[in-house]
Amino acid sequence: MKDLLVFELKKITRKKLNIIVLLGSLVLTAMLFLSSVLQFISFDESGNQVRGFSAIKLEKQRQEEMSGILTEERIKEDILQYQELFKNPDNVVINDGKEELSDSTFSKYVAPKMYYMGFINNNYTIPNFYDYSFSEIKKMQLENGINFYKQRNEKVSQILNASYKDWNYSDQEKEFWSKKSKEVSEPYEYGYHEGWKTIFNCIELLALPIIALCICIAPMFSGEYQCGADNIILSSRYGKSKLILAKVLAAFIFSFIAYTINILVGLGIILMSFGGGGWNLPIQIMGSTIPYALTFLSATIVCVITLYLVMIAMVSITLVLSAKMKTPFSVLIVMICVLMGPLFLKLSETNGIWNHIFMILPSISAQPVFFLDATNYLSYPLPGFTMDVITIRMVLYLMISIISVPIAYCGFKKHQVA
Question: Is 217 helix (H, G, I), strand (E, B) or coil?
Answer without folding.
Answer: helix
